Amino acid sequence: MQPAQAARYHGGDENGTCGSSSGAFLESVPARNLCESGLASAVTGTGPWAWSCSGRHGGTDAQCSAQRLVAGACGSANGVTLSDSPKTGLCSSGTPSIVSGNGPWTWTCAGNDSSSAACAAQSTTQSTAPPGTGRTVPSPIYGVTLDDVSNVNAALSAFKLLGRVPTARVVLDTGEPASYYLAPIRTLRPSAYIMGELVDSSYMTSYTASSVQAWTESYTKTLNAVVDIWEVGNEVNGNWLSTESNGADVLPKIEAMYDVVAASGAATAITFFYEGEPADNNNCIATDHGGNDMFTWINNRLSLNLPAAQRPVETEKIRVNLKYALISWYPDQCQGETPNWPQVYTKLAGIFPNAKVGFGELGTANPENGSTFETNEIDQYYPMASVTTGLPPSYIGGYFWWYFAEEMLPWPGSLGSTLKTAIQ
Fold it and tell me: Which helix (H) or strand (E) segment is 398 a member of?
């Protein structure tokens, strides 16, 4: 009996082929799945990385490579004052877009991880303009609400992974000085536009017209350079904003906030609370303490029954010059109500002729941590700007999911993946 012999290769040439790491975007140097067939060489480079997979028995080698996963981030030109449109220093990572504007200038830095950072530079020729008039927020707006900025790094990471540049609506808590928010907003600003909510509706009874004016002056003085939109009234027609039976103290507070922000040159927004229409069977309108359905409240408080020339100067100024007229909508609090949004927003746009319209707040009464109701709500509303016909040209989206910090941080939480899919 002859001794056993080693197995022999009886096939033809065998080419090397790259593994699944080839062509991928990776956070670190690839160490696995380098070759599907053939022997892997050493990996070279610092991202992109390269290696080969050797062929056998005369087969060809395969050349393989992978890219480093890069988040978009603004460069040294962001946030500075320049004499001309920036040409260099646009992005510290990612691919810059075309620079737009005539000073201020804006651009984005797109990462290959689907993130995008919003960047801007000011012009020296505008040094005499009111400070901090904010960046122009492009439409559609994909907004989220941050009612807590203590986990700002987690929020920043989430913004970079959303796939769209969001607008972060920061709730400015009563009792916190404006300086408390300066560092968090500066951290978020390269990757998001910023809306500052001066006084949440739940805080409104804590202020008088004079104290809310002082509050607004303090906040705009500190934050005007880093806030793009100021919300000067939140859910203003709600019945919980006043302790007076007729709600007469609410409008003077809105006027005080508006006057301070408008004088600074910044963009103003007012959010109304939608409870349906009086004729709707399923409306949830509450009329105590001066509350009312959105349009009745607007008609009464802005004296729209009078000719324009006879209306109060202050409210007419707000009506004509408001930049954003928005709606807060919580469908679980008004069950069975099915708003005709094209009709609602067309009517709202007609009242505020120079304002953009959209949602200023969306959510559920309490966090439901990814319930079917919540996922359906996000799926229905966030794509509205592109899928719903009949909306007015001034419709800009918005939405501003209230429980973003609670339900999507750390990313993706229970709803982040749903939101990311909805806005693509």
Answer: strand 397-401
